[in-house]
Amino acid sequence: MNRVWVTGANGQLGRCLQALKKEDPSFCFTTREQLDLRDIAMVAQFVEQNRIQTVINCAAYTAVDAAEIYAEAAYELNRDVVANLGRICKRFSVRLIHLSTDYVFDGQAYRPYPTTAACGPINVYGRSKWEGEEALRALALPNSLILRTSWLYSVYGSNFVKTMLRLGQLQEEVQVVADQVGRPTCAEDLARFIVTQLLDFESSQTETYHYANAGLCSWYDLAVHIMQNSKSACRVAPIPASAYATPAARPYYSVLDTERTQKDFKVRLPYWNSSLTRCISQLQATG
Ligand SMILES: NC(=O)C1=CN([C@@H]2O[C@H](COP(=O)(O)OP(=O)(O)OC[C@H]3O[C@@H](n4cnc5c(N)ncnc54)[C@H](OP(=O)(O)O)[C@@H]3O)[C@@H](O)[C@H]2O)C=CC1
Ligand SMILES: Cc1cn([C@H]2C[C@H](O)[C@@H](COP(=O)(O)OP(=O)(O)O[C@H]3O[C@@H](C)C(=O)[C@@H](O)[C@H]3O)O2)c(=O)[nH]c1=O
Ligand SMILES: [Mg+2]
């Protein structure tokens, strides 16, 4: 039996994985309250005592704007904890599936970023995630991978989709950035891909893959789709990023190339708009 440990169990992806695997006795899940990953000794003990064979690291510091102010906290979790987890995985011959982000790229490209493209993060969150990736690559863990995804949303936690649904009820108009494009990704789709495709992945070192829903759109397009889908009368006004001041800069062209994933795992990725429609229905059904 492959003993799988999912960290960040209270996060969006962690909760989607729980929805699929909570009843599976080979899976265990920990939240921050149950096991703070900054406690290296506890992490090593947990891996050893539970004879963990695969770690799916869904824990991260994901507050993009706050990371500009609390950079130390972002680096601690997204780089230092990841490096420690990688060393522990190496010591106990555990495979690691680590999640990363489109924000490792600079957004200056004009075609989707392949896994081999040079990184050049433009904010603290992106840099901290990239440094975590690099720490893992340096360890060259067998059968392990870095899985980058983008613009995650789900019925859980907070995300852009839920923010827009809320604003759609409260306001007559929302202004949304129209010059940043990317691939919104349904965390439920990602969770299903991880459990069906990645648990018996074989490689001699740490490989990099991209998983994002198919198609692409701007945050503005996404907001329009959300308002239409939820039958909100709220108008969506397109604005340039320069008119929406945030502590963290965001990439303009944040599109992950998923070719390698489709080819190596022989999967077709669902379109962003069909997954989004399903998620909105789920949110509305539960109130
Ligand atoms: N959200 C997005 O849009 C995207 C996310 N990603 C990446 O995907 C992965 C999953 O993201 P997502 O599910 O949205 O993240 P969330 O922010 O929803 O969840 C992250 C979880 O990590 C936990 N955590 C924080 N600090 C610690 C700690 N010291 N010890 C243990 N757990 C801790 C948090 O706990 P608590 O709930 O207590 O804060 C939280 O539950 C991350 O690696 C992220 O970088 C990639 C692209 C897009
Ligand atoms: C709420 C709101 C946001 N925006 C803009 C701000 C920003 O440019 C864009 C998205 O804002 P958010 O803060 O929701 O998204 P952000 O936190 O940048 O999302 C990112 O999170 C991290 C964790 C990732 O890894 C990325 O893939 C990406 O999903 O929308 C508006 O234009 N109008 C609005 O009313
Ligand atoms: Mg955010």
UniProtKB/TrEMBL annotation:
Gene3D superfamilies: NAD(P)-binding Rossmann-like Domain, UDP-galactose 4-epimerase, domain 1
GO biological process, any: dTDP-rhamnose biosynthetic process
Reaction(s) the record says it catalyses: dTDP-beta-L-rhamnose + NADP(+) = dTDP-4-dehydro-beta-L-rhamnose + NADPH + H(+)
InterPro entries: dTDP_dehydrorham_reduct, NAD(P)-bd_dom_sf, RmlD-like-bd
Entry EC number(s): 1.1.1.133
Domain RmlD-like substrate binding: 3-284
Signal sequence, start to end: none
SUPFAM superfamilies: NAD(P)-binding Rossmann-fold domains
Gene Ontology molecular function: dTDP-4-dehydrorhamnose reductase activity
Pathway, per record: Carbohydrate biosynthesis; dTDP-L-rhamnose biosynthesis
GO annotation, cellular component aspect: cytosol
Pfam families: RmlD_sub_bind
Keywords: NADP, Oxidoreductase
Role this protein plays: Catalyzes the reduction of dTDP-6-deoxy-L-lyxo-4-hexulose to yield dTDP-L-rhamnose.
Entry-linked NCBIfam families: rmlD
Family as reported in the entry's similarity comment: Belongs to the dTDP-4-dehydrorhamnose reductase family.
Record-given protein name: dTDP-4-dehydrorhamnose reductase
Organism: Leeuwenhoekiella palythoae
